Amino acid sequence: MKRRVLMLFRRFGLVGPAFRTYERAVALRPSRIRTVDGPPLPPRRLMVRVAGTADADWFLRGGRAAYDAIAAHISLDDANDVLDFGCGCGRVLRYWGAHDGTITGSDRDADAIAWCRGNLAFARLLRNGLEPPLDLPDEGLDLVYALSVFTHLTAGLQTAWRDELRRVVRPGGRLLLTVHGRSYLPRLSGEERASFDAGELVVRWGELPGSNLCSAYHPERYVRETLADGFEVETLEPEGALGNPTQDLIVLRRTVSASA
Question: In this predicted model, what pLDDT tens digit does every residue of 26-62 receive, in sequence order?
């Protein structure tokens, strides 16, 4: 949806309903039907909420690439208890069926969680709110990954969820994130670029946190000095998120004690 059109809807307080209508329209666009091995494809409307498109090939290839990127940066043999935070309709979660440990998926989208419960029986599914907490015990997880989740949260929500995910990860466990880094600078205005270059988080459409319209852009300085509080930065790979092309991939290791 064009930015100038969104700005017009914003003037009348209608940007949220307008964007939801746009997503429904995208789900109705014709595309090739794909036969898949393993779990079935989710309904098109759910794929659009997760990926911005109902293209089945993109959904499946992107999910597999994201899983492979996780496996390339984390020893899955040492990750017995795993959380897919922001799992949506299982774009990545669907590839964990052979995992020997426990895999949990969490999302605020009730329809997506219901679909996962009916089609990804190997996983435990939880519904979370826009704000913490998660219905999980302290220090119970070896790995949490959140792919293109912090990209759609305001600064306050990012801090709250960073602290909550630190709570549920064991000391020495990992938090793997993908974010909008420098490769997204062409999307920003001159003023926004100046803020980004100064190490400040840039957030657009912050009145719709958690939606695909809300977009956050993370300079490396912000990641290291703010987002990673309570963690050690093990990896910060520009454009390293294979399943979310051009997003940066970050691996954080939970420290034993921290200021967070």
Answer: 444 555 555 567 899 999 999 999 988 899 999 999 9
Residue type, 72: A
H helices of 74-200, in order, are 110-119, 155-168, 190-197
Domain boundaries, the chain: 60-254
d(CA 156, CA 154): 6
What letter does residue 38 receive in the DSSP assignment?
A: S
DSSP-derived secondary structure for 44-84: HHHHHHHHSS--HHHHHHHHHHHHHHHHHHS-GGG--EEEE
Contacts of 153 (CB under 8 A, 6+ apart): 161, 209, 210, 214, 216
User: Model-level pTM?
Assistant: 0.87
Mean pLDDT for each 10-residue chunk of the chain (260 residues)?
57 55 50 70 94 91 96 96 98 97 98 98 98 98 99 98 99 98 97 98 96 96 98 98 93 77
Element (H, E) at 9: helix 3-11
- CATH fold, domain 60-254, is Rossmann fold (3.40.50)
Strands 141-146 and 81-85: parallel
Please report where in the chains the tokens 């990860």 appear, as a residue: 169
Sign of the C-alpha dihedral, residues 50, 54, 57, 60? positive
pLDDT tens track for 150-165: 999 999 999 999 999 9
